Amino acid sequence: MLEDTVKKILQARVYEAARETPISPASFLSRRLNNQILIKREDLQPVYSFKIRGAYNKMAQLSDEQKAKGVIAASAGNHAQGLALAARLMGVKAVIVMPRITPEIKVAAVRARGAKVVLKGDAFAAAAEHAQTLIEEYGYTYIPPFDDIDVVAGQGTIGMEILHQHSGPLDAIFVPVGGGGLIAGVAAYVKYLRPEIKIIGVESEDSACLKAALEAGERVVLDQVGVFAEGVAVAQIGEVPFSIVRDLVDEVITVNTDEMCAAVKDIFEDTRAVSETSGALSLAGLKKYIQQTGAEGETLLCINSGANTNFDRLQHIAERTELGEQREAILAVTIPEKPGSFKKFCKTIGKRMVTEFNYRYADPEQAHIFVGVQVKPGGEDRQAVIDKLREAGYPVEDLTDNELAKLHIRHLGGGRPKEHFEEEVYRFEFPERPGALVNFLTHLPHDWNISLFHYRNHGAAYGRVLVGMQVPNGDRTHVEEYFDAIGYRYWKESENPAYRLFMA
Hints:
InterPro entries: ACT-like_dom_sf (IPR045865), Ser/Thr_Dehydratase (IPR050147), Ser/Thr_deHydtase_PyrdxlP-BS (IPR000634), TD_ACT-like (IPR001721), TD_ACT-like_sf (IPR038110), Thr_deHydtase_biosynth (IPR005787), TrpB-like_PALP (IPR001926), TrpB-like_PALP_sf (IPR036052). It contains 20 helices and 18 strands.
């Protein structure tokens, strides 16, 4: 099977639409990490992602009859743009079914490349189902985003280019993983010719479908999938890709939101390219590999898979970057509520920079401050800062890894309620579409009172929302039944220390 896949890669038709992208040395990062870091620049494709390769190669295999009837896909991301361009170049009608929550920038990009866009449903599943309905009605050919051997072969030309462009020592290639088409193609070609090169998959920790499949020995469906890196937000690894990679991948590394944001910054500083979060995923994994193994003097290559990001996401990415580099500690510190306390606190910290300071009067005796403190890259001295503050008599709660604190608390003002009351506090992901809030409120009982609400738009398909509710005692044990009926992802935060310290 491996030899057959390599033959398909060698025969793949991609360069009528795609270009051979360069490998950029990451000079700043290489010096910082004591390894030679290389970046394969798929962000420089005509559609700003690698997806054009697989889409075009799959379409090149279609019969004249299939091309005459047209092609279709359900996609809210880079596959949609790749297929739209491939179809235009071939003179074939293309229909892309996208969820209604798809950001307008992506809808406009697909239309600009000549495809017809059909907006259907609030999630990918509904869009995919409607695509099947249109196939039955009009006879379109479905072009899958990853689970197809011709798509895999198209993506595998990246591996072919890497070995052609870099003939010297190469210790490992880091590949972002969503449905698995990219890593299957790259792994097949590289392992066939250079089996000593490690192939390391990198996944977002909240959509790690390949890691789950390898651990189970078979494909599994994740219960929930995070959407921050929407380009790799896939619940199940593809059948065709998994049959190829299960024996070829050396390791799978998972990374979090902050680590991806830090990698976006790293790519920008070395190449001036603004990567999407899923595009920077492989670099985040590369950095984590070095941190975990202590590797030095190695040649490591990562694939920047795309640069289709909304401009209004950049603020959120920038906010999380310092945390991703572990250069900032987020702390909740209790200090005396009296003049001179803040000055004394700063003297205790010493020469470290205070990166953030949030405070609202709430108690005549004690003040709870939300503070960011600069620490060394890697966060190796974060505990030393906490210990120093505690030795000085300050109660400290470390919130550096607390999602509620980073997403909501640091942006909330207004202090605490004047009178104590009981409330249930939950964090949600709302689909970014008109009516999402009304849908939420409609499903709540009429006698529930909203006591806290915070929402920020991050330019993604889903908005992050914090909600506090006064719930009658009789409903307390049934709260989550109502939320399950709504269908939005949620997390209970009523006991979260960030909420207890600053909002309760």
